[in-house]
Amino acid sequence: MNAPGTAPMDTTPFRARRARLLQRMQAAGGGVAILPTAPERVRNRDAHYAYRHDSYFYYLSAFREPEAVVVLVAGKETKQILFCREKNEEREIWDGYRWGPEAARAAFGFDEAWTIGDLEKRLPDYLADQPLLWTSLGYDNDWDAKVLGALNAVRDKARTGLTPPHSVRDLRAELDEMRLVKDASELATMRQAARISAAAHCRAMRATRPGRHEYEIEAELLHAFRAAGSQAPAYTSIVAGGANACVLHYVDNDQRLNDGDLLLIDAGCELEGYASDITRTFPVSGRFTGAQRDVYQLVLDAQAAAVGATRAGNTFMAPHEAAVAVLAQGLIDLG
After folding, report:
1. How far apart are the first and last CA of the chain?
2. 262-312 pLDDT tens trace
3. What CA–CA distance (Å, rounded) separates 105 from 82?
4. Is the pTM of this model over 0.90?
5. Which residues of 228-259 are buried (b: 16+ CB within 10 A; e: fewer)?
6. What's the CA gap between 155 and 279, in Å, rounded?
7. CATH architecture for segment(s) 12-179
């Protein structure tokens, strides 16, 4: 855990992304962008699921707390605003450190920061006389209601000369375009996530033998992920022995591993919001049968063809088509 009052990482890339988004908004006519993080979810009674921030929100903010919203104003003068939870000594005793607006503004590089309770009051002021509203509607009914409430609050002041934005742009679509090209910090994080996951798969392979259970191998993966510093699995791990591997999203992971079967593992860690994803299949006993080896080699050849077709200038589908061609011919050859 980072010491209270210090940012969790270098926030320079996040500030640069906000500045780049503001430039794109200005080029499209200006306006205001509003982006909330993910809500907390109750697991049972007073227990919550482990919190995970919204990816789009984190991409711009580096801020991991729930109950937070980023507002970006792309006018003649740009403005970057963060709304977050207020400092609360009692809740921090229960739940841990909270940044609070003042410390968060300085640490994460925002021009202004306010408590999340101020959002409803201040949002109409940011929206007034702006040409465009950049947000994403249709994903969360509660959030949609807050946005519509703010727009209606501006409309209610029409007699004073204020006007609301005349149209809404999909903010996620704009951010998707930005996220297609990774910056240096993203690439470094993704490579480290891949290294952690590759080492976890090797650990799982070494631990596999007939008589063990799928969940025991899953535990090896989870141990390796967390011990290397990742925050969580990127998705529920698939550890599927024998026929279970034919279920595309098998997650029970509770069956015994048998001699002669293959074990499929589809698992990867998440590191600083970035996912890794690795799938490997290998013999439970450590040695392929003849038929298993033939099919394994065919899949490996298809993967090599796909990798070879992954290069600048090719279409998105080129790697897939290269793999399909190898698989189709290989299956014919195998009879």
Report:
1. 57
2. 999 999 999 999 999 999 999 999 999 999 999 999 999 999 999 999 999
3. 7
4. yes
5. bebeebbeebbbbbbebbeeeebbebebebee
6. 53
7. 3-Layer(aba) Sandwich (3.40)
